[in-house]
Amino acid sequence: MTTATTEATSISTLLREGTAVAHTEAENASFMANLIRGELAREDAVNLTAQYYFIYTALENIARRGRATNDAVASIADARLDRLPSLEADLAAMIGPNWREEITALPSTTRYVAELETISPDDAPAIIAHHYVRYLGDIAGGQVIARMLEGHYGLAAEELTFYDFSAIGKIPPFRKNYKDALDALPFSDTERASLLAHAQNAFCLNSAVFADLARISPVLQGR
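C-alpha cells predicted for Biliverdin-producing heme oxygenase:
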C-alpha cells in the first residue's frame, strides 16, 4: 500500500505509515531479535556499538551542518540527542583506551556512511528522514534494548550511555514535541515524497548493517 504524500496527511503519519513495512523488517532482523532475546554474545553487542559509532559520526556531522544553515533541520535535529560522545565513552568502557584501533566498519556500514556523506546540508528532507529513523527509534526502543543488554550480557551502565536520553527530560513529551515539529514543517508535496523515500531507504540501510552483524556473529556463524 502506498501512502499519499499530499498535505492532507500529516508528516508524522506519512512517515509512520509509509515506513511501516521497512521498519518491521529492520526491527525483526535476526541479529537484533536474537540479541534482544539474549541468544548472542557480549561481542555482538560490542560490534553493534562499533557500527553505530561510524554511522553516527556521519549522521551527526551532516545534522550539525544542516541545523546551522537550515531552519527546517534546526527545528528537528535537537543537539541534545547527539550520540557520538556517548558512543565514544561506551566503546572506551567496552574495549579500552585503544578502541579506535580495534573497530572496523562493516561493508554495509561503509555504504551507509557513504550515503550520509553525499547529503547536502541544504537537503532538509534527506537529513530529517535519516534523523527520524535513527533517533526516534533510539528514544523509544532503545530503552528496552539497554535493559536487555544489561540483563543478558552483563553490560555495565558506563557501557550503555548511548541509550541514556536523560538530557531531553521525560521521553513521552519529547516524542510528542518531535512529531509536532515534523508536522509543522512547511514541505511541499515533492519534499514530502523525498522525505519518505529517504526514510524508507534509511531503514533498508539499517537492515543491511544488521545482516552484516549476523554474518560476523560468533554465535550465528555456526548456524
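The domain at 11-217 is CATH 1.20.910.10 (Heme Oxygenase; Chain A).
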